[in-house]
Amino acid sequence: MQILSWNSCGLGLARKKRTVSKLIRDFDIEVCFLFETKLQSYSDRLVFQLWSVNNVSWFGNEAEGTKGGILAMWDNSKFAVSSVEYGHG
User: Fold this and answer.
1) How far apart are the first and last CA of the chain?
2) Distance CA 80, CA 53 (A)
3) Of 83, 63, 80, 79, residue with least CA distance to 71
4) Per-residue pLDDT in tens (0 to 9) along the chain, 89 residues
5) Domain with 20 in it
6) Is residue 49 within 8 Å of 18, Cβ to Cβ?
7) Is residue 89 part of a domain?
8) How many domains does the chain have?
9) Which residues contact 29 (CB under 8 A, 6 or more apart)?
10) Is residue 41 part of a domain?
11) Does 22 fall in a domain?
12) Within-domain flag for 87
């Protein structure tokens, strides 16, 4: 199983989105965790922009102000996630 875990230090720039998408594609990533995205919201559009194929499920925990933000994505053709638990701090 190929897993990508990366402190992205912000995900607002197009260059960073292209980098993440290239890593997912080039290394055939099945699970991706992006930390410190600094994003206030997530959308299917953003996730599909990063993953580039339709077999993706995801969960996002929004940033608080200019800190935090987590985006988890996974290939739902390989496995299913039955639950997601998270906490702040």
Assistant:
1) 28
2) 17
3) 63
4) 899 999 999 898 999 999 999 999 999 999 999 999 999 999 999 999 999 888 899 999 888 888 899 999 999 998 888 888 877 65
5) 3-75
6) no
7) no
8) 1
9) 2, 3, 4, 23, 75
10) yes
11) yes
12) no
Among the listed residues 79, 84, 88, 70, the one whose alpha carbon sits nearest the alpha carbon of residue 2 = 79
Query: Within its chain, how far is the Cα of 67 from the centroid?
Result: 16
Q: What is the pTM of this model?
A: 0.88
Residues 6+ apart with CB under 8 A from 43: none
* Two structure tokens written together for 76: 């739902």
**CA–CA distance, 82 with 79 (Å, rounded to integer):** 10
CA–CA separation, 21 and 5 (whole Å): 13
Burial of 7 per CB tally in 10 Å (0-12, 13-18, 19+): exposed
